[in-house]
Amino acid sequence: MALAGGTLPPDDVVVAALRTGDEAAFAALLDAWSRGMLRLARAYVSTDDSAQEVVQDAWLAVVEGIDGFEGRSSLKTWVHRILVNTAKKRGVRENRAIPWSSAFERQGGPSDGSSRFSGEDGVPPGPWKDFSVLWPTPEDEALASEVRGQIAAALAGLPDRQRIVITLRDVEGCTSEEVCEILDISAANQRVLLHRARTWVRARIEAYFETVGRPA
Amino acid sequence: MKRFRCAEVVELVTVYLEDALDEPARLGMEQHLACCGECGHRLDQFRAVIGVLGALPSEEDLRGDVRDRLLSAFRDRHRRGA
Ligand SMILES: [Zn+2]
Which residues belong to any copy of the Putative zinc-finger domain (chain B) (predicted)? Predict the structure, then answer.
């Protein structure tokens, strides 16, 4: 099984390799998915150490259960479902509530439809107004790191379910079908959570640009 | 074709980007976006935010001892199984 390049072979190849005890294949899978799994686990449990344990227990369940994998979903979805179930049990043991809303949301952030961002009449908005300064990636490293900090803070301020969905979709790059299967939610629900989360992050970035103003 | 107001477009940005609108709604949305600069910029902002989110570096890695434990569990499992 190929180790380099970060692209994994098709599921049937990976699954066959795992079943025959191909350790390099397992290591490649660990290295490809564990970071994303840690990020996801962290939304359910209270500490980084707990998240490490959740990811460890999920992988142990994968090792024990791989012979029973039937291929009805993708391997990635199957592994992430195991992770979510493991993380939920752990979160319950920690008495951690999964809130539907947070202080941030009550402050009126998400789905704020105001038009503060429009430019002056006839004046095209600058790169700060339409965020084109961010796209495709900020060239200015100081700005890039500042914006990453703002985004991390914005994500941290989201209700858990919104944060989980936007993390899976936009940070980890899962498809909407994968997210629905991993979290057992409907496509409509997934879109609502994703839209609220993106709206909130967008508003936070806009507020940040308004604070720093347009540089000379 | 449906005619959209700005407030409706704002709520439909994600559905639009997911390509989950029916044909008349998609056309109406595109017509609105073509002539409303404000909504066009908001769409650009969404795309920029999605781009930055997709390029976030991961802060945490699997701890070395956890990775070692998993690899040895994998080896044991197959020694048992064989
Ligand atoms: Zn508009």
Answer: 6-39
